[in-house]
Structures are given as structure tokens and as C-alpha cells.
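In response to the reviewer comment on reproducibility (Comment 2.3), we provide here a single inverse folding case reported in full, input and output, so that an independent group could reproduce the run without further information from us. The C-alpha cells appear first.
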């Protein structure tokens, strides 16, 4: 194998640049040329590919986002679009791909392997931590630290004014961020897609807190459950609490990646290149316990990550 390519696709995650850097420098160390594809699958179709040298990834490990950029690409879902992209890959003599992204990105990688025989290895990058098979994905730890920083900050003003804060975090189908941040941030409740909630019970818990003399309440809500604005209005109307809303939005994605995310991305990037050299394809790198392992795309895409309900029990016990 003499030439491979690396790309990022879907939503950006802190640590993607560290993964790209690892792929490039591991490739160079093994006499493999590494091309960078800009804007994901869109870049394959539009032939936005360039050879990356060691200097191109210098001073990128501490940067959030992805310097290769990312984009949605509906054209890749069409056979004509995919064939155009494959011709561009062949034009550059690219023999294999490393795809960094979430479920949608890995699905595209699987199609390239199934339909066109391309060797592909995926790296999980999703701050929601919704990808099956890996303990944690690139960017999750940084996103959680961003959320906790916000919670710690608003705790000051919430306590000063006896307020209840509704904090909306990302997580369309997965409540990992909301639940973990609720535990680490000392919140009173977490509303997540996986588990039904009882709004009256939450109201009663907040009433009891104020009766006990506690001066603030914080509720985490995953975006997949609904709007924090709507819940905040309901909470204020039903309970009479002085309620404030904070929607963290894309703040969660930004910032310099944590040491954990830098190390995870670096290990996965190196493993992806080594896996390709060993002939592996159609697999995703995964952190399983303390080791980087390879999980087949069929297993990753054919299963749904399950929430650890023990965390919900811990969150409930600690919220009183």
C-alpha cells in the first residue's frame, strides 16, 4: 500500500485534527503517502484532495474542529455521485480511506467498500457518544468539559437569585451528555430520550429543595427530548419557579480538545493506518476497555448504543 486518504465527515468533534495528524504521520513513518480530502464526501465528488506532508499537520493537535472541514453531501447518496467520487479516488491512485465521523459517515464508508471494493477503516467522531461498539468517541470528553464549565459558571448566579436553570445540551437520540453532565455537574434532573420522565415528580423535587433551604436547581435536557424554552415555560407556569434557559448549542463542539481526546484520537489514527497495512477493511476503531480494537461496520451500524441505566440510578440518588 503506497497511497491512502483521510477525511472528516458529519458534525465536527474536538480531536478530529489530532486523528488526522496521527494518520498522516503514521503513514509517512511507514512510507505511505496520505491525501487529505476536504469537506468529506463532497470533497470526493468535487475532487478536493491534496497530498499532506508532516508540516501540514504541525500545530493542529490542540485545535478544535477539523482543518479538512466537513459538509453534508446529498449527492453522495446517488449512484451517479458515488461513481464520480470513485473515479476521482482512482485518478489519484488512492488505495484506501480513513473516514472520521459518526453513523452517517461510517455508512458512506461501508457503501464504498460494498459497492466498489475500497478498503476503508472508520474512526468514531461524535460528541453525542451514540456510536455502538466503542466505550467513547472522539470529542465526547471535550464536550462534557465544555458543558460542566457552563454549569459551574451558572451555578454562581443561580444560587445568588434562587433560580432554576434549564440547560439544553446536544443529544438527538442519545442522552449520554445530559446524563453524565448531570452527575458531574450536580444537577437535580436529566431529561433524556431513552427514559420517560415525570414532570410532576421533577417539580416536587424542586419544591422540596427550596423548602430545605437549597438555593438553586439545575435541570439538564437533551435536545432530542424537546426544547428547553418550552420546558422552562411549563416549569415556571406549573411550579411558579424563577426559571432561566441556557441552550449551549455549538459551544459544546468548540475549543481545544482535552488530553483524553487528543490521546484517544492519536491512538485511533495510528491504529487505522496499521490496520490498513495489515489488510483490514470494513471496520471501525473502537476503545474497548483500555485497548483499541476493530469492530466490523455491520456490527456498528446494525446495533444501537444502550444507555447504562446504572448511571441513571446514580444520578437519581445524588440529586436529592
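Designed residues, in position order:
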Amino acid at each position: 500500500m503506497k497511497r491512502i486518504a483521510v477525511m472528516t465527515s458529519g458534525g465536527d468533534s474536538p480531536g478530529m485534527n489530532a486523528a488526522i495528524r496521527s494518520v498522516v504521520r503514521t503513514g509517512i513513518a511507514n512510507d505511505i503517502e496520505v491525501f487529505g480530502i476536504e469537506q468529506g464526501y463532497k470533497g470526493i465528488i468535487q475532487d478536493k484532495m491534496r497530498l499532506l506532508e508532516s508540516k501540514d499537520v504541525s500545530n493542529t493537535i490542540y485545535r478544535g474542529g477539523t482543518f479538512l472541514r466537513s459538509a453534508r453531501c446529498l449527492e453522495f447518496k446517488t449512484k451517479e455521485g458515488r461513481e464520480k467520487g470513485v473515479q476521482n479516488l482512482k485518478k489519484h491512485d488512492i488505495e484506501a480511506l480513513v473516514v472520521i465521523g459518526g453513523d452517517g459517515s461510517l455508512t458512506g464508508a461501508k457503501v464504498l467498500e460494498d459497492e466498489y471494493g475500497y478498503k476503508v477503516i472508520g474512526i468514531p467522531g461524535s460528541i453525542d457518544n451514540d456510536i455502538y461498539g466503542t466505550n467513547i468517541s472522539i470529542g465526547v470528553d471535550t464536550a462534557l468539559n465544555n458543558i460542566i464549565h457552563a454549569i459551574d459558571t451558572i451555578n454562581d448566579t443561580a444560587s445568588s437569585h434562587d433560580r432554576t436553570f434549564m440547560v439544553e445540551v446536544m443529544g438527538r437520540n442519545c442522552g449520554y451528555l445530559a446524563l453524565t453532565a448531570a452527575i458531574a455537574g450536580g444537577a437535580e434532573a436529566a431529561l433524556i430520550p431513552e427514559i420517560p420522565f415525570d414532570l410532576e415528580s421533577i417539580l416536587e423535587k424542586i419544591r422540596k429543595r427550596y423548602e430545605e433551604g437549597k438555593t438553586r436547581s439545575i435541570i439538564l435536557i437533551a435536545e432530542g427530548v424537546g426544547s428547553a424554552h418550552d420546558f422552562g415555560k411549563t416549569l415556571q407556569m406549573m411550579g411558579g419557579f424563577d426559571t432561566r434557559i441556557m441552550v449551549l448549542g455549538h459551544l459544546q463542539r468548540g475549543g481545544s480538545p482535552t488530553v483524553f481526546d487528543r490521546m484517544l484520537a492519536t491512538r485511533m489514527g495510528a491504529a487505522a493506518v496499521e490496520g490498513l497495512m495489515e489488510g483490514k477493511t470494513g471496520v471501525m476503531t473502537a476503545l474497548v476497555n483500555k485497548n483499541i480494537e476493530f469492530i466490523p461496520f455491520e456490527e456498528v451500524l446494525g446495533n444501537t448504543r444502550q444507555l447504562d441505566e446504572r448511571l441513571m440510578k446514580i444520578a437519581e440518588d445524588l440529586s436529592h
